[in-house]
Amino acid sequence: MPYLLQSSTVVTFDPPAVERADLRVAAGRIIERNSAIEPNETEEVVNLNGKLIMPGMVCAHTHLYSALARGMPAPPRAPTNFKEILELIWWRLDRALDEETIYWSAIGGAIDAARAGTTCLFDHHASPSYVGGSLQIVREAIEKIGLRAVLCYEVTDRAGSRGRDHGVGENRAFLRWARHAMNEPSHKAMFRGMVGAHASFTLSDESLDRCAGLMQEFDAGLHIHVAEDECDVVDAQAKYGIGVIERLARHDALSPRTILAHGVHLAEHEIDQAISAGAWFAHNPRSNANNGVGYAPVSKFGQRMVLGTDGIGADMFEEARFAYFKGRDSGSGFTANDWLRVLANNHKLASEIFDVNLGAIDAGCRADLIVLDYRPPTPLTSENLAWHLAFAMNSATVESVMVNGDFIIRDRQATFDEEYLSEQARTAATRLWKKLKSL
Ligand SMILES: [Zn+2]
Q1: Span 63-101, pLDDT tens digits
Q2: Residue 272 contacts by C-beta under 8 Å, 6 or more apart in sequence?
Q3: For residue 341, how far is its CA from the centre of ligand 1 (angstroms)?
Q4: Which of 31, 260, 273, 409 yields a CA-CA distance of 20 to 30 A from 373?
Q5: Which of 318, 373, 369, 315 is nearest to 52 (CA)?
């Protein structure tokens, strides 16, 4: 359905801009932007009365498989370090996932994202008891809600070389599917693949080579956790005598499409090496704080930093706000404008992967848009936008969400059956938690 979005306040991040405009949307794109557009008879006119229109948010690192973890029973004992957090919480949870709970977890996470105004997800999936076909299940769930996503499976040696091979095979199968789907003018073009890998400390040289081989074969980037905790760095030094980034470079695993999540404990020369190769650092400040792994050297990540939630929902307003305050508290030197630039990088990354423009609101750009009913008590301008974002704008003001030209939430009403889907997700969560107790 073509739309004429009238009387909106168009807000874009790079450069920061706030401007009254009308937008014409058709066939998944913005086809016209002007101060006043006359309606034609084929389109529906939506009067936004000065409400804000922004590009849909992008989450550059998440784990939909953990969406049913919210409020789950405590682990058998409290973890005392990062490895134990993995072993006692996340590796028990991902092992417990089956065909059904993978789907409902992705549904729950995707609904959360849509409600938060996040229209594109970079997901990092793991379900070692159900590997083959798992990415298609995640895709179906995301498609049901109507989001755009980049999927991959976490390759790891946790379950030996057989488990590793299953992971590599699942990435290959999805990359192959996505390569065909991207040329179709249908909903399938809403997905891309990456090569997923857990982390250096759970990957042998042979496993890293397999991942790098897939990257070459499909011209895809690697999506991997890097130096999230010091244990990753210690492991690479002890086993290979080099740093984590040096190890990835040795295996040809760095590229301009590669996402390195966390990067908390990297030496400066390694950060430089990754940036020279064009890789992106995904900063996940709430997750880092929650796991107590330390504060990432954000000022060193320069122009190649994006923001992720690491599975703590998909609310980029909240993540950016936490990033801002944590940065202030830690003396990072970052201003609100710097974090606005990072959010713009998220759009840049997604635009590069999908080969469309997702960060601007102009004729020719994809119509992944959110409408915010944000009524501040002070003027909102191009100059102070970043401070409105840092201190006040939030996902509760997200009123409508459009992805690829279609509303998936309109005037706070979802086009998917939210009540039913959420109820089904809760039922699946109860079953998953019961299973967890027996593990
Ligand atoms: Zn992660």
Answers
A1: 999 999 999 999 989 999 999 999 999 999 999 999 999
A2: none
A3: 22
A4: 31
A5: 373
Ligand 1 centroid, distance to 223 Cα (angstroms):
9
Q: Indicate the residue type of 214.
A: L
Q: Are 400 and 119 in contact, with CB atoms under 8 Å apart?
A: no
- Both structure tokens of 76: 């058998």
Residue 297 vs residues 183, 225, 246: alpha-carbon distances, Å: 39, 15, 18
d(CA 28, ligand 1 centre) in Å: 31
Pairing, β 57-62 against β 118-123: parallel
Q: Are strands 44-47 and 52-55 parallel, antiparallel or unpaired?
A: unpaired
CA angle 388, 389, 390 (to 5 degrees): 95
Radius of gyration of the chain (CA): 21
Cα 310 to ligand 1 centroid, rounded to whole Å: 4
The CA 198 to ligand 1 mean position distance, Å, reads 8
Quote the ligand 1 centre to 261 CA distance (angstroms): 7
For 353-370, write each residue's pLDDT tens digit.
Answer: 999 999 999 999 999 999
- Which CA distances in Å does 337 have to 162, 326, 343? 47, 15, 10
Interatomic CA distance for residues 405 and 368, integer angstroms: 7
Residue 397: CB atoms within 10 A of its CB come to: 18
Q: Ligand 1 center to residue 94 CA distance, Å?
A: 13
Cβ atoms of residues 236 and 201 within 8 Å: yes
